[in-house]
Amino acid sequence: MRFTLPPGPPVTFKARLHDARTATAIGRWLGLAMAVCFATGVLSHYLQHPPGWLADRLPSRPYWGYRLTQGLHVASGIAAVPLLLAKLWAVYPRLFAWPPVRSLRHALERISVAVLVAAALFELFTGLLNTFQWYPWPFNFVPVHYAVAWLLLGALLLHVAVQWPLIRDHFTRRSPGTLALPAADGPDRRQLLLGVTAAVGAVTLTTAGQSVTALGALELFGPRSPSHGAQGLPVNRTAAAARITPASLADWRLTVHGPRPYTLTLEELRAMPQHDVTLPIACVEGWSKSAHWTGVRVRDLLERAGGGADARARVVSLEAAGAYRVMEMGRLYAQDPLTLLALRLNGEELSLDHGYPARIIAPNRPGVLQTKWVGRLEAA
Amino acid sequence: MNFRHVTGGLGLACAAWGGWLLLQQPEPWRIAVWLGGAVAVHDGFIAPLVFAVAALAAAAGLRLRGVPRAALIVAGSLTAIALPALLRPGGTANPTVLPLDYLRNWLLAMAAIALFTVVHAALHAALRALTRRADRGA
């Protein structure tokens, strides 16, 4: 039996602007957003799970570094949503190219585009849902979001390489390919691009308030709001979720291990030299908020235990279980004078949900590593 | 060897690395289903919906250009990023997660966009009528 192809495609498109100039103009911005999103994402991945050789080299400054990069990660991902949808609109008719496959090369090209589209939609979808703490899928978000990011970067680089002649010929309004398109489409295309720009601005302004405090009044759709939360700070893991109760803290002592181990009561901790710092909590989900913290320098506690000037720290929380119950702190964080075992937040004793009686606050680190309900500190 | 070969080769290497990482996950076929599902939902539902709106508008004699089209793009984009907050089932970990009234905010945003579009169209029509009258007077 011979299979014969119908003479024409099942769908045809009459609409204008499904051309290489529109795709290039949007693609440039989409590529930029994805590059920022990838770079900040990989950075966050290594800050959160540093391999051994890197742990002591991670810098604790600038103190606002992670707040900026993770804010950018989420903001560039959100900005990419209208850009990706517009880009796919521009090239959608190519889905119905006829005949569907012309050659082996054409088939490989179409497969690589399918991988690119799948990875791009997947990353934006899973990333967006993660900021809402919504996980409807049957896999582990962190390693899969990370793996598909590499797939997306690879497919994107391959796409740029394959399409380079088209991109180059349509890169500006005056490029030869652009000039060969119907001139009457020019104003219409500029209006379309203005509309997409407006959409990027709108999604950014209505969500950026979760990390840019000055934009708080415009925040309509951010999953966190800096103005909500006890003591002026949102919470991720509550004491109840960590199974911490006031009763379980009744005989609380801080144990510090090292060459000269010791224990301290809360009163003794309060009697040590206290320091005030202003540092943000910056969550991997993108929200961040600056706060005033008061407490004892971690390096003072390590030094008293006989840890040298290059001591690193292991911090153990009292929570019963949790992926971040034991936190490793590299040398540069542990020795930074801004790194505190904080007892007070914004002028008040820490609330139970913020880590009473003592929590870690360090500069330039993801929020999950700002360990709450600290019970043990080890100089290493 | 030129720029395209280097970029393409780098792309293949990165994609292979990502694919290898995916294969290390338990039951990678489940991830493949979600990757393919994302394309199916976009190509089979979201994109046809956009083209259907344009076709319906055309059938009704409306040309979706300029500000009305931009308004639809902005409204659609805002809806896309607001949908998780509007649809997410179940309670949240604590009251600081999803603390805003997202339905009210979404309705406000849609109303503001609609108002802007209508006011813009009215101003545009008024301006055109004025210039036409001025032209006739001259």
Overview of the structural elements:
The complex is a heterodimer of chains A (380) and B (138). Chain A contains ten helices and ten strands. Chain A is an alpha+beta fold and 380 residues long. Chain A folds into two domains: 20-218; 231-379, Oxidoreductase, molybdopterin-binding domain (Sulfite Oxidase, Chain A, domain 2, Alpha-Beta Complex). In chain A, the strands form two sheets. Chain A has a five-stranded mixed β-sheet. In chain A, helix 4 (104-131) packs across helix 5 (141-169). The longest helix of chain A has 29 residues, at 20-48. Chain A is elongated. The model of chain A has no long low-confidence stretch (mean pLDDT 95). Chain B has 138 residues and is an all-alpha fold. In chain B, 80% of the residues lie in helices and 0% in strands. In chain B, helix 3 (66-87) packs antiparallel against helix 4 (102-137). The radius of gyration of chain B is 24 Å and the shape is extended. The mean pLDDT of chain B is 94.
Write the layout of secondary structure elements.
The complex is a heterodimer of chains A (380) and B (138).
Chain A: H1 20-48, H2 52-55, H3 65-91, H4 104-131, H5 141-169, H6 176-180, H7 185-205, E1 254-257, E2 262-264, H8 266-271, E3 275-282, E4 288-297, H9 298-304, E5 313-317, E6 326-329, H10 331-334, E7 340-345, E8 348-349, E9 359-361, E10 374-379
Parallel strand pairs in A: 1-10
Antiparallel strand pairs in A: 1-2, 3-4, 4-7, 5-6, 5-10, 7-8, 7-9
Helix pairs in contact in A: 1-3, 1-5, 3-4, 3-7, 4-5
Chain B: H1 3-23, H2 28-59, H3 66-87, H4 102-137
Helix pairs in contact in B: 3-4
